[in-house]
Amino acid sequence: MDYGWSVIMGFLIRLARKVAGRLDKASPDFVPSSPKQPDTEYKTVGATPERDLVPVEHCETTSLSHLRDVLNGSGEISLVIHWATWCDGCVEEVPALKQLHEEYGEKVKFIGVCWDSFQGSLSERELLVKVEEFILANEIGWRSLLVPNDPEALFDTLDMSCQTVPQLWVLNMSGDLDYQENGPLTLDAIKQLREAIERNFRG
């Protein structure tokens, strides 16, 4: 075969392959290759392996019956802190509460009652991790109990006339309400809170 015929045959072979490729793509069985996925890993709150491994040590879920027993049967003077991470007033009063905890933490039982489940659509695990991370980031020294997503049941169980956060209670050793502060702490409210605690020390 001379050089001319080699060129012609090569051209015909390439043409045949190109036509065959077009026919394959036009056929019903043709499946195009999948595009490559981007290297970027998009992360969402509570949905990553890293968050799944976060140990939760400073908060826990609670039933309303257990919460009622904790508040009524501690046998200690208690400061009950109703709060949520989505509540601006709750976040703002953290420094003042930390100061009170430094002063009275060995004599008064601080109990956080977290309302985070009342907003959003996070799972129980995601809520616990969110609250845990907030507690750690703000170096809060007391534990919190995460209540179920049923506000009306909480209000009925604890006979709450005020149904907003922030809200603070001072309970005496019998679990009875001695003092209540609704809304963000002011200087006057902090003074009254201290007086209520000291009053219970005196019996």
Structural class: alpha/beta
CATH architecture term of the largest domain:
3-Layer(aba) Sandwich
| Biggest pleated-sheet summary | 6 strands, mixed
Percent of sequence in beta strands: 5-15%
**Element order, helices and strands?**
HHEHEHHEHEHEEH
Calculate the mean pLDDT score and round it.
82
Write out the CATH superfamily name of the largest domain. Glutaredoxin
Give me the side-by-side strand order of the main sheet. 1-4-3-2-5-6
Q: What is the CATH domain class of the largest domain? A: Alpha Beta
Q: Determine the N-to-C terminus distance.
A: 116 Å
CATH topology of the largest domain: Glutaredoxin
Number of continuous helical runs? 8
Oligomer: single chain
Coarse shape: globular
